[in-house]
Amino acid sequence: MRKKAIQALNEKARAIERLADGEQPTAQALTDRKVPQGCTTIFDTGWETNPRPTYPVGNCQASARDFHGCVGDCWWPAQMPDGLTNHREFDEQCPNVARDWRNLKYD
Amino acid sequence: MRIVLAALALLAAAHALPAAAGDRFYYLGYGVVQVVDGDADTIVADIPIKGAVREVDVTPDRKFMYVAANRRHVHKVDLATNRVVASIDLASDGWERFMFGFALAADGTSAYGAMMSRRADKGEAIVGRPVVAQFDLATGKILRSVEVPWGVAHLVAVRGGAQLYAFGQALYTIDTTQPELAVVATRPLAGRGMNILPFWDYTFDNGGVASMNYYTATHMGLLIVDQKSGAIDDLPLRGDPVMAYSVVLAPDRKLAYAVMDELTVIDLARKTYARSVPVAEGTSYGVNVSSDGRKVYVAGGGSTLTVYDARTLKPLKVLQMASDGMDLRRLPK
Prior knowledge:
The structure holds 2 protein chains of 2 kinds. Chain A is mostly helical. Chain A is 22% helix and 0% strand. The model of chain A is unreliable at 34-41 (pLDDT under 50). Chain B is mainly beta. In chain B, 5% of the residues lie in helices and 55% in strands. Chain B has one helix spanning 2-16; strands at 23-37, 42-58, 64-69, 73-78, 83-89, 96-104, 110-121, 124-127, 131-136, 142-147, 154-158, 163-167, 170-175, 182-188, 195-196, 209-215, 220-226, 232-236, 246-249, 255-259, 262-267, 272-278, 286-289, 295-299, 304-309, 315-320, 325-332. The two termini of chain B are 39 Å apart. The model of chain B is unreliable at 10-17 (pLDDT under 50). The chains are: A mainly alpha, B mainly beta.
């Protein structure tokens, strides 16, 4: 019998295991995909890594100029408001990030 | 004699002035589309729009522009009055739909969209299969659809609308002439190591030619799609790749301009880069060129529109726009 990587050591942990009895996998690791993706599920590119050796180095300059592009299509949803589901009116709240950033209201 | 000399002087003066290209640019913003007169390079109209504009297409008579926003709304804009005259939401029958890729159909009453969908059923999320769908522009009702692989993000109508090119991890050719839409050919992109973000193609700006850049592990290339014939030219570019979101063709098709953090001139005949200058305002998504080829316009990303002299690449003017933006499109006045 294959040894489990994680074992329940107390009653509470065993109770949690019993809750999961018979469950099948319901999630898929993003790394299983051939290309990375955000919640937008479009063809991701990695443009922003921008690996040039000289100026401008790194990501979009300034990052505010790429904010709406990412929000609206739900790129980087952990770092930015998700414009497809949870923050659909973000463009009304903050149409110009450099000017209106004080109006940002998202968790 | 004096009259003749005066007439010659007037003629010479007129010749020395730059010809008016007669362009009108449409800045695709957030909650607004702004109209820029390409001769004076000034904002001449604001068109209030609900949502974050992503894609547009124009009717063959150039009277109406359809504006796709927030990946779910489509607004019809009367270009004579610069007003939204109709709007639809693609959600229906309990399904939410998100559209990445939009192209008008040849019938004038419908359009195609690459769509993902979802709905909730007793608290469970149901995710629909990705499709390319034809929908009614007046109601948003889905007329027919064909399932496509995950990842389609852009559509280009070719051969008079008889076919659609759907760009994703591969290029899928969709036949629209039969009662049912059908994928009739697949040309690998990711399978050939090509990575593409095909949100900008400038098809009507380029006179019926879509221009998109892609990257491999070693180079940047251009996909040039002729709408009339459906022919696709693949131009791998020599030299260290520049970083670019979008590429537009110069009117003479000898040059192209690419933009991201820099504005780059591409020599199409030599298939290499001619020159780059940093964009002082910062990262930009969209690039366009005047119809006489004398001025290059860089906009989107942030809220600026910069006008460059196409020959020297020196900035001539910076317009502060009402909002951040996605792109800048050009039509004749």
